[in-house]
Write a structure and sequence with these properties.
By secondary structure, the chain is α+β, with helices and mostly antiparallel strands. The chain is built from six helices and eight strands, in the order ββββββββαααααα. Helix 2 packs parallel to helix 4. The protein starts with a strand and ends with a helix. InterPro entries: CarD-like/TRCF_RID, CarD-like/TRCF_RID_sf, CarD-like_C, CarD-like_regulator, CarD_C. Pfam families: CarD_C (PF21095), CarD_TRCF_RID (PF02559).
């Protein structure tokens, strides 16, 4: 049974504040309420993820351990936008393993890790098409990043996407030379792994 007693500030978070929940991205604290579960009083953050039409109840005492955090500071957003202009770093491992790593980065809630996924999976018009699973991961990372950039800069999500796309346009184009460079890098990595195994 939910107690009608509502709080407005707990554990440094307040009602109406936007937060990042690792597995779902940016949400808004709609209320801080008390519930009685098996005779124990439990205080909960009620977080709404409007875009996903979902509401999550997180015990206030567990907020930190589940990785919930405040929105990134402006400096971190700037660093994330700078990250996506860098050269893609693609490991020459099996796609299934890389996909797992990308998914873990997206669900980490870490804005820089998410920006790295956007950078590594971005394809310009001149580049070959992405596979379905690559596209899914790219769009998931892009969506997470856009939502946080929008919330921090008080922009509409489409404006945040345009800002990210403008940054991506500045990234070094992966042309033949870059592909050759990546192959050399992969060969070097393979040598390193052989040396480590020896």
């Amino acid at each position: 049974m939910t107690n009608a007693k509502k709080h407005s500030n707990r554990h440094g978070y307040k009602t109406g504040e936007f937060v990042v929940y690792p597995a779902h991205g940016v949400g808004q604290i709609m209320a801080i309420e008390e519930q009685e579960v098996a005779g124990f009083k439990l205080e909960l953050f009620v977080i709404s993820f409007e875009k996903d039409k979902m509401t999550l109840r997180v015990p206030t005492a567990k907020a930190t351990s589940v990785g919930m955090r405040k929105l990134a500071e402006n400096a971190l957003v700037a660093k994330a936008l700078e990250t996506i202009t860098g050269r893609a770093r693609i490991k020459r491992t099996m796609w299934s393993r890389r996909a797992q790593e990308y998914e873990a980065k997206i669900n980490s809630g870490d804005l820089i890790a998410i920006a790295e996924v956007v950078r590594d999976l971005h394809r310009s018009d001149a580049q070959p098409e992405q596979s379905y699973s690559e596209r899914q991961l790219y769009e998931a990372a892009l969506d997470r990043m856009a939502r946080e950039v929008a919330a921090v800069n008080r922009l509409h999500e489409t404006e945040a996407l345009k800002l990210i796309e403008a940054q991506l346009a500045k990234s070094p184009k992966r042309v033949k030379g870059a592909e050759a460079e990546a192959e050399v890098e992969a060969a070097n990595e393979a040598e390193d792994e052989q040396e480590e195994a020896a």
